[in-house]
Design goal:
Number of strands: 15
Strand content: over 45%
Largest sheet: 6 strands, mixed
Radius of gyration: 17 Å
Oligomer: single chain
Distance between the termini: 10 Å
Structural class: mainly beta
């Protein structure tokens, strides 16, 4: 995924100035499952990531809706996040652990839960690369920017256009 700052005075990358790339960290070269053993039947129904520029990098608002399809309960629910982030907000009882954030509560079969996280990703150079593991099968992944300074691009994804959101144009992907 490539988020580019429009109008920046630096060299062009894919016909835009600086860029941010969002990727998935592969678990292994063979594509083995990244699903944690403590949550083997959890899947993501939908996930939204909104990117906004802040003075020293990006702010990411990350909302995830998970479901345990069963047949086994999840002992806890780890959620993948980029490395080297600075937490702005995460709800109790979530706790940062081992480069991710974890809900320590069990998730029963058939139970759904939503998580809203906010974090900053400091960036020192461009293109900006945002990488994080996708731990679960994910039905929908939406990437947004409402900033006129950022342009959103991604490999192997389908842009869905521009939408009006609270009086500001949004660029979902």
């Amino acid at each position: 995924m490539d988020l580019s700052r429009k109008g920046a005075p630096w060299p062009l990358v894919f016909l835009t100035a600086t860029s941010i790339v969002l990727g998935v960290i592969p678990w292994s070269a063979q594509g083995a499952s990244q699903t944690p053993s403590v949550a083997p039947d959890v899947e993501v129904l939908w996930e939204h990531l909104a990117f906004m520029p802040v003075p020293d990098g990006l702010r990411i608002v990350h909302v995830t809706h998970v479901l345990n399809r069963g047949p086994r309960p999840a002992l806890r629910v780890p959620l993948g996040t980029p490395r080297a982030i600075r937490w702005v907000e995460f709800p109790a009882p979530l706790v940062p652990a081992d480069g991710m954030i974890v809900d320590p509560r069990p998730l029963a079969v058939g139970e759904e839960r939503q998580y809203a996280l906010v974090y900053d990703l400091p960036t020192l150079s461009t293109p900006w690369v945002v990488r994080r593991p996708l731990l679960y099968f994910t039905n929908e992944l939406w990437l947004w920017t409402e900033s006129p300074e950022l342009s959103l691009r991604a490999l192997h994804s389908t842009p869905v256009g521009t939408e009006e959101s609270v009086g500001a144009p949004s660029q979902p992907m």
